[in-house]
Specification:
Layout: E1 12-18, H1 25-33, H2 40-51, H3 60-63, H4 67-74, H5 82-95, H6 100-116, E2 119-127, H7 134-154, E3 160-167, H8 173-186, H9 188-193, E4 194-199, H10 212-224, E5 231-236, H11 245-257, E6 262-265, H12 267-270, E7 280-284, H13 285-297, H14 299-303, H15 311-320, E8 326-330, H16 333-351, E9 356-359, H17 361-366, H18 378-383, E10 388-390, H19 395-398, H20 402-412, H21 416-426, H22 431-434
Parallel strand pairs: 1-2, 2-3, 3-4, 4-5, 5-6, 6-9, 9-10
Antiparallel strand pairs: 7-8
Helix pairs in contact: 2-5, 6-7, 11-16, 13-15
Length: about 450
């Protein structure tokens, strides 16, 4: 596929995108250069610990004046664990002021830049510091929304952007949610442009079961008042260093069935478990108990998808770990086969929900768990008829754009017809449509 021609004049919807992660290297350098007080401590220590390089903050902008040198420092385009990615993302946090004036500018600039790259509709996620005040969060949210409104007018409606607010997995999510709703009631521009809530950052240690009540409350509120309905976008099955791929797949299924509207990455759901064959995975006993209990409770249904351990064997393992904190699981051929069967079961269940998967090929390749593109889940998603979109995640730091992500999806095995269907369908998977705020006929649909 010629990516310069594909989608030309048609437009793409980029639904999984982090606002500040969209900053191109040259723009981030300029923002930092004009910032009189960069927060260097956020960046320098973690970067030195993970990359072994000490940064001289006094001569930083001279040392990295050339575009090539700054790109080497900033871009994350190698395979590595999430902490290595975060160490580079910290450069964005360090160099930016993150005040209302800058946020308004960034919201406009990112929309314009991505419109030039083919994006006609984008949803951008923003996360505030856990100790930020209501007044601070309100002013920043309003600034971003105003930036989106201004650029939409400047582009004569050819491109539209919406804001998604990322909540803290370890925070008081009901309090944060109430604050978002209060801002929406207070200001009509916030009510228009804020369309969803997101859970991102570190996934390990924060099981979906902890958010089950919250997901239920959001659904209830959406039904009660559609004009302020919000989606819940849930990063899940992206990073699972602390568990087996089988347990991670269960997290994806639970998130979908409990009401998450879109699932960020969901790699564990369709990734080939042969990638872990021969390895030993350490998992908390509580996590393993949840997985074994699920398999026992749904044994008849899961076993239709392939051979899995007998009920007697599952029960025996459950008894053996009741008083342990950790358990070691060897990924044998039997485990691989069992995981594949469970994934097939999960994909069929998720297909019967309204959940949409957000697939981000570059992100999956670099910070996800995919080390071999033949193991990437996208093809299995397509074969099982799952609803999914293709997005950029953090295009600035990954050095990618929406057409490049579609090109990578094609290299994984999707046909041009499949890609065109994904492109069109993505306009029907916007937060405003999924939450019930807009009927499909009023949704943005680009031909």
């Amino acid at each position: 596929m010629n990516t310069k021609e594909f989608g030309s004049g048609l437009g793409f919807a980029d639904l999984h995108n982090h606002l500040y992660g969209s900053l191109r290297p040259e723009l981030l350098w300029k923002i930092g250069y004009e910032n009189p007080s960069p927060r260097w401590d956020i960046f320098t220590k973690p970067f030195q610990e993970l990359y072994g390089k000490k940064i001289n903050t006094e001569s930083f902008f001279e040392d990295y004046r050339s575009k090539e040198d700054f790109e080497k420092l900033y871009l994350f385009n190698h395979q590595g664990p999430f902490p290595e990615f975060q160490a580079k993302f910290n450069l964005i946090i360090a160099l930016s002021k993150f005040n209302p004036e800058e946020i308004r500018f960034v919201s406009k600039r990112v929309t314009k830049d991505q419109f030039e790259e083919g994006v006609s509709f984008g949803e951008y996620r923003i996360m505030y510091a856990p100790n930020d005040t209501y007044e601070g969060i309100y002013s920043k949210t309003l600034a971003s929304c105003e930036g989106f409104a201004e650029v939409e007018s400047e582009l004569s409606g050819k491109a539209s952007s919406r804001l998604v607010i990322s909540l803290h997995r370890d925070g008081n999510v009901f309090k944060e949610y109430d604050m978002v709703k209060e801002m929406m009631e207070k200001d009509p521009i916030i009510r228009k442009y804020v369309v969803g809530l997101d859970f991102c950052y570190i996934e390990e240690g924060f099981p979906p079961k902890d958010k089950k009540e919250f997901l239920s409350q959001v659904q209830k509120d959406n039904r009660a008042e559609t004009s302020t309905a919000l989606t819940v976008l849930y990063h899940v099955g992206e990073s699972f260093q602390d568990k087996t791929i089988l347990s991670a797949a269960r997290w994806v299924l639970e998130s979908a069935e409990w009401g998450a509207h879109r699932l960020g990455h969901a790699i564990a759901l369709g990734m080939d478990p042969n990638a872990y064959a021969g390895k030993t995975i350490s998992e908390t006993s509580s996590e393993r108990k949840d997985t074994l209990t699920y398999l026992l409770d749904h044994w008849e249904e899961v076993s239709k998808y392939g051979e899995i351990s007998s009920k007697e064997r599952l029960s025996a393992e459950l008894d053996s770990i009741r008083h342990k904190e950790k358990t070691e699981i060897s990924i044998t051929e039997t485990q691989v086969s069992e995981t594949k069967a469970y994934q097939e079961y999960c994909m069929d269940r998720i297909r019967n929900t309204s959940a949409i998967i957000e697939s981000c090929p570059s992100s999956n390749e670099y910070i996800g768990m995919v080390r071999d593109k033949s193991h990437h889940p996208l093809i299995r998603f397509a074969k099982h008829g799952l609803k999914f979109t293709i997005s950029t995640d953090d295009p600035g730091i990954f050095g990618t754009d929406i057409r490049e992500e579609y090109r990578k999806a094609e290299s994984l095995g999707l046909s041009q017809d499949q890609l065109e269907k994904v492109r069109k369908d993505s306009f029907l998977y916007t937060s405003e449509i999924l939450s019930g705020r807009l009927p499909v006929k009023d949704g943005v649909y680009s031909e």
